[in-house]
Write a structure and sequence with these properties.
Blueprint: E1 2-5, E2 8-12, E3 23-26, E4 30-34, E5 36-43, E6 48-57, E7 61-63, E8 68-72, E9 75-79, E10 86-91, E11 98-104, E12 107-112, E13 117-121, E14 128-133, E15 140-144, E16 147-154, E17 157-163, E18 170-175, E19 184-187, E20 192-196, E21 203-207
Parallel strand pairs: 1-18
Antiparallel strand pairs: 2-21, 3-4, 4-5, 5-6, 7-8, 8-9, 9-10, 11-12, 12-13, 13-14, 15-16, 16-17, 17-18, 19-20, 20-21
Protein name: Glutamine cyclotransferase
InterPro entries: Quino_amine_DH_bsu, WD40/YVTN_repeat-like_dom_sf
Amino acid sequence: MKHAKAEIIQEYGPFEGNPAIHGVTWDGEQVWFASGNQVNALDLVSGKTVRAVPTPADAGTAFDGQHLYQIAEKHIHKIDPQTGQVLNTIPAPGDGGDSGMAWAEGSLWVGVYRDRKIHQVDPDTGKILKTLETNRFVTGVTWVGGELWHGTWEGEESGLNHIDAHTGKVLEVLEMPAGTGVSGLESNGADRFFCGGGTSGKIRVVKHPAAKTPA
């Protein structure tokens, strides 16, 4: 198993009126983050929030290319980001213990914090299609380049784990610095991870370990 220090290359926030970050996703241009009673769009150039969609938002967030998906206690809402309208609601697989969430290849991937599980879920019905078990609490989930990663935060230890998408075996660990937890996780599909920083109210950008350093 590979083990390395996470390289934080940028920080955003905290954001006024949003004391904590609960979930993070990426729509190709903006980072969306859940902050309790709304989902906010963050412009990475200005570092400012440019939109907010009022909705219960106490855990993971995902984007399928057109819609937002937001965990709200025991449910997952499918939301039109333009209007804020809830288009569909399905049960969350962790029955309220759900944490992070990602979209990949037509499915939602939902982490359940204390169960140390990640469920592949049908986004239309909520049916669990597959379950992976990992060795740490799950605080965020993302896919990048065919790799499945999850955030973890237990006590004073936090990091990003790359796991085998078939067995759940941990393949690689990026250890976050002391005092920096991961409360949500998303990638930009290439070389960066966006990490929610819990009650710090910050979003931290971590370099993917395979990303090349500019000459």
